[in-house]
């Protein structure tokens, strides 16, 4: 069991994701994201611009790691100065989300916020940078702390700089 000093939530305080429910959870997340992306883009961010809990949405456009096809994902908008942060948490599931591999293979991304799309270059932050960014990340979305406590996976964080 891996624990990180900067994570305040402890593993024993969170509910694990039952192995048998992971495929269903991924299926729901995939279809909910497709609907969210379609509505957000069609309305230039006027509809489906908040996740449950009121957290703002951004749409990240990547290139498929293997296919090279355009892929879009709805994520929580995490501003950090002029940069955007992306957290590959997937709710604390044991594996990285597919979009993580897309960005690792093709770090040039587009991020749409409030109907405006801009180009960014993503860079995975080091463990030290992640620890320094953690208080900011959980101030924007407190559940990240629970997600990191739930998994042994070191949840990747990307810093995206405008290009």
Essential attributes:
seven-stranded antiparallel beta sheet; alpha+beta; Pnp Oxidase, Chain A; 4 helices; 163 residues
What's the quick description here?
This protein has 163 residues and is an alpha+beta fold.
Commentary on this structure:
The protein has 163 residues and is α+β, with helices and mostly antiparallel strands. It has a single domain (17-43, 55-162), classed as Roll (Pnp Oxidase, Chain A). It has helices at residues 22-42, 98-105, 127-140, 143-150, and strands at 57-63, 70-76, 79-80, 83-87, 108-113, 116-124, 157-162. It has a 7-stranded antiparallel sheet with strand order 2-1-5-6-7-4-3, with helices on both faces. A hairpin with a 2-residue loop joins strand 3 and strand 4. The radius of gyration is 15 Å and the shape is globular. The model has no long low-confidence stretch (mean pLDDT 95).
Radius of gyration: 15 Å
The share of residues in extended strands comes to 25-35%
Number of helices: 4
Strand order of the largest sheet: 2-1-5-6-7-4-3
Mean pLDDT score, rounded? 95
Question: Any low-confidence stretches, pLDDT <50, length ≥5?
Answer: none
| CATH class value | Mainly Beta
- Separation, N- and C-terminal Cα atoms: 39 Å
Question: What's the helix and strand layout?
Answer:
Layout: H1 22-42, E1 57-63, E2 70-76, E3 79-80, E4 83-87, H2 98-105, E5 108-113, E6 116-124, H3 127-140, H4 143-150, E7 157-162
Antiparallel strand pairs: 1-2, 1-5, 3-4, 4-7, 5-6, 6-7
């Amino acid at each position: 069991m891996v624990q990180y000093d900067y994570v305040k939530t402890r593993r024993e305080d969170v509910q694990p994701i039952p192995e048998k429910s992971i495929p269903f959870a991924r299926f729901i997340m995939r279809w909910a994201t497709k609907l969210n992306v379609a509505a957000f883009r069609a309305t230039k961010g006027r509809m489906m611009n908040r996740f449950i809990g009121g957290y703002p949405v951004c749409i990240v456009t990547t290139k498929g790691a293997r296919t090279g096809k355009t892929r879009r994902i709805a994520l929580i908008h995490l501003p950090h100065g002029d940069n955007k942060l992306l957290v590959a948490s997937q709710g604390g599931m044991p594996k990285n989300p597919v979009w993580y591999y897309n960005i690792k293979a093709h770090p040039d991304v587009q991020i749409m916020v409030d109907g405006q799309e801009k180009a960014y270059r993503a860079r995975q932050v080091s463990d030290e940078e992640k620890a320094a960014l953690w208080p900011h990340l959980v101030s924007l979305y407190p559940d990240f702390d629970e997600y990191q406590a739930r998994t042994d996976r070191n949840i990747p964080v990307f810093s995206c700089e405008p290009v």
